[in-house]
Structure formats: C-alpha cells, structure tokens
Amino acid sequence: MYIKTIFGLIFSIAVLSCNNNQQNEKSEQKFKPMGNIERLDAELDNIISKDAKIEIIADGFEWSEGPLWVEAHQMLLFSDVPMNTIYKWTEAKGKEVYLKPSGYTGIEPPVSKEPGSNGLTLDHYGKLVLCQHGDRRMARMDAPLDKPEAKFITLADKHDGKRFSSPNDAVYDFWGELYFTDPPYGLQTQDDNDSKKEIKHNGVYKIKQQGHSDDPGERGTVVLLTDSITRPNGLAFLPFGQKLIVSCSDPNKPNWYIWDVKGDSLINGKIFYSAAEEAKTMGGLPDGLKIDKNGNVFATGPGGIYIFNKEGKKLGMIKLENSASNCALSPDEKMLYVTNDMYVLRIKLRN
Prior knowledge:
- By secondary structure, this protein is mainly β.
- It folds into 2 domains: about 1-30; about 30-350, 6 Propeller (Neuraminidase).
- The protein is built from 2 helices and 28 strands.
- It has helices at about 1-30, 275-280; strands at about 30-35, 35-40, 55-60, 65-70, 75-80, 85-90, 95-100, 115-120, 130, 135-140, 150-155, 160, 160-165, 170, 180, 205, 220-225, 230-235, 245-250, 255-260, 265-275, 290, 295-300, 305-310, 315-320, 325-330, 335-340, 345-350.
- Strands 1-3-28-27-26 form a 5-stranded antiparallel β-sheet, with no helix packed on it.
- A hairpin with a 5-residue loop joins strand 8 and strand 9.
C-alpha cells in the first residue's frame, strides 16, 4: 500500500509538471514573435533588456495607427484609419471593435482612402481626443471611455476661417494646451494639389486654453506654430515640455526636427536626426513617436522603431519588415506598443 501511494504521488507530480510545461509553452506561443533589436550603443541595454521579445498581439488591419494605452481600463486603443474604426485590445479578450465611425461621420460615402481617426490621446480630464481625418478636425468623444459612442465635440476645425486638411497626431503639454499636425493624408489625393485643400501649407498648430476655464468642451484659439515642415506628422515633448520634436514624413526630407517652445512660438528649429541614409534601403518614413521620462525617444521611421537619447544620438533600432506608424508606452514605461501596418505589436522593454 505504501509503495502504491509513493508511485501515485510520483505519477501525479509528473503529470502536473507536464501540464505546467505545456501551459508555459502555450503562453509563450500565444503571440507570434517578429523582428529583431539592433544595438548600436551600450546605453540601449538600460532601456531595452537583452532578452526583450517583439510579439504580434493583434492582426488583420488595413493600416493601424495612433496607439494609446489606457491604464484605468487596462486596454490599448488604436485606429484602423482606412476602416474608420477604433479597436481596443485587452489581454483577456484580444482585439474588439471599440468605436465606429471614428473619423468620418458624414452621410455620403467617404472619398478619402483614409477617412478614420488617426492619432489618439487623453486630455487632462481623461477624455478621449481624436485626430479625425474625414471630418477634418480635432475632436473629443462625448462619452465615457467604458461606454464609447460616436458622439463628438469639435475642439478645432479651422484656422483663419479655412478648414484643416486632416489632423494627424496630437499631444498635450503640461498646461493642457493641445498641439497637433495637419498634413494632407486624409484628403482624396493625399497631396497638396487636392482641390479640397483650403490651407496652402501643412502646419503644426496649438489650441490655446481660454483663460482658466474648467470646461473641457470649451473651444480655444488656434495658433499656427510653424508651416516650415513639408509633411508634419508625429510630435512629442521632451521632459519638462520646453522642447518639441516633430517628424517629417516627406520622402525627400525624412527628418525629425526639434524646437524650443517659447509661449505661442517654436524657435531655434533644427534637425534632431535625419534618416535620409536609412530611407534609401528601408521602407517607411518618420511618423509617430513617444518620449520617456528620461528623454529617450522611440520614433517610428524607415525600417522600424528608432531609439535616440535626448541629444539625438541613435542608440539602436527595433527592426521590422512592415512600416511602423506609431507607438505608445505603458505608464511604467516597461512596455512598448507599436502599430505596424496590418499588425499591432508589444515589446516588453524590461522587467
């Protein structure tokens, strides 16, 4: 009897161990790996651990964009611009439709190839703010995050009486003023010759707050900050908000630019980094970017995600086969989410 009991325990332990190994293997196989990390400077090891993996967590999109991690609801929101849809992704349920329509709310079928929302962010009240291509405006969703509805409040749709082309990406500064870019990619021809384009330049703008208003729906004055970038796209502030980096997705000028922020002006503009050499052999262009609390820059561009330090030194790359459009950091800055054409990726940067 004693020997049978011992053998029974050994068998049970073996079965449990086998099950645990199978569960671990299934967990590891749940998300497909892709890409690789190129390390050009030892400083990158403090940002991305040597065993970091790039995983596909969702796929099947036309062109994914504008990732936004919402900590309060443990969900990733992102746009599928051609499909006029925002999706959400959670660890428990994977991808689900979150909001449709997201960027074009007209009755007639859209003529644009990319009518949906693009960049997404949260304002200082925790409300969802969208760059809407089809409706050609910056807007706020007039509904709670956990009960989304295609109801929107216009924050800005014109400058000097002329309609924007298609707001692309946006970021709030410390004081709650909204900065955004306006290239022509949401127009039918996606270039400066489109007959519906009302503003001759492609600008970087700011929506000024109206005094000390606590009304999140109040519209502020729109200020043109610069019209010198041929194709302004992603933008983000270095820590303390005194410097702004803006990407240019012009194939002839594949650069990131940096300015000092002074009141309602951008001054001392210069190239932060040029990807002209990389663009000769790799697909993609400078697009969305995010900056961590130490000033490290994660910027989508030719060949994948560039990692720069705050001085513009290239530390390495997350190399990807398909064009990456934007990225998002988790609040603890240990997880990076990437919209990558038909995919959405996740990279655990460090433990």
